[in-house]
Known about the structure:
Blueprint: E1 2-3, H1 8-33, E2 50-55, H2 63-79, E3 84-89, H3 94-106, E4 111-114, H4 123-131, E5 136-139, E6 150-154, H5 156-170, E7 181-187, H6 193-211, E8 215-222, H7 228-242, E9 248-251, H8 254-266, E10 274-275, H9 282-290, E11 296-298, H10 301-317, H11 322-325, E12 329-331, E13 337-343, E14 346-348, H12 354-358, H13 365-368
Parallel strand pairs: 2-3, 2-4, 4-5, 5-6, 6-13, 7-8, 7-9, 9-10
Antiparallel strand pairs: 1-8, 11-14, 12-13
Helix pairs in contact: 1-4, 2-10, 3-4, 5-6, 7-8
Amino acid sequence: MKIRGCTNQALYASLITFLLSTVLLSACSSTTANNNGANKTNSNGKGCTKVGILLPETISSTRWETKDRPLLIQAVQNAIPNVHIDYSNAQGNSDTQFNQATTDLNNGDCILIVAPHDSVAAASIVEEARNRNVPVIAYDRLIQSKYTNYYVSFDASDVGRLQGQYIMDHYSQYTATGTEANVVMISGSQTDANALQFSQGMHEALDPFFADNNLNEISETFTPNYNPVSAETEMQVALSDTQNNIQIAYVANDEMADGVISVLKAAHLNGKVLVTGQDATTTGIHNILTGDQMMTIYKPIGQEAESVGTLIQSMYLGLNTNNLTQGNTIPTADGGSIPALFDLPIVVDKTNIATTVLADKYVTKSEICAGLPAGTDNIC
């Protein structure tokens, strides 16, 4: 979804309208399939020893298989004695994810942990689970259904604000004194509710600078499936439209940032354009060390998985979870207010790689320093 020359209000309104209309269509479809489901309520998962974990894909980030999968499995195993876990990855297909969820439910799974490929389409998973009195935890990405039981993630708006704040604090290093910095924004997938929140948080930080003409907004593009190849194309278009006059590239995550950097390298602009990222991947941290990417957002997935484990354990034991959510909620497009557990994202750049992702053993020195000279930034 490409947005050019639109106000932010128009952008958000169009996306919210899209979400609402699709939710309504999904709801109608679900009701047609099983019109008895509307009067059913979820159980609380007490005594549940069969748990389904459903992750969305692998293309947007390596994190899903290399980090989330093992950490979630371990957290659930620690939470429930002798638990049986069904694990699935939808590989970027919403129909596949729905079928995987249905299989889990047919197999007797009594709690589902779902990181949706499509935040709207996954409402059908919640509806199917609700029909069977099975609670659903939306993991990392929100599911646009008011019947979702819990949401465990990092506040996506905070992530966007941190990315925007970094640009605000450093943009002047990439432009001549007294001139505007041209900004291209390569946002996440329009099927991920987090992508809108990343964008919204980023705009909250940067819109005053756009208004004051310190920054000039060239375009914002929402990139299907966070596809790095699509991000490359989007960056090529932005450079062509401005005759290579881009100083800032807001990029929603590290994998897309790597695609953007390949385009900047071809134009001999790498290191001369401020590039953001997210997920603190090995690739992202490596690109920070080379000077081609300036920052990323580290979301300690181990902490996120532990939050799921703590929640699952409370559900299994039949305990009140209010002390975990602490009154935090997140709205859904269909008028819901979902109890939420939020963990804290962390900005990572050259100054704190050692004390964050390396200290937490989230990445290894050998991975991030591959091909770099010894002594690079006192890390390698």
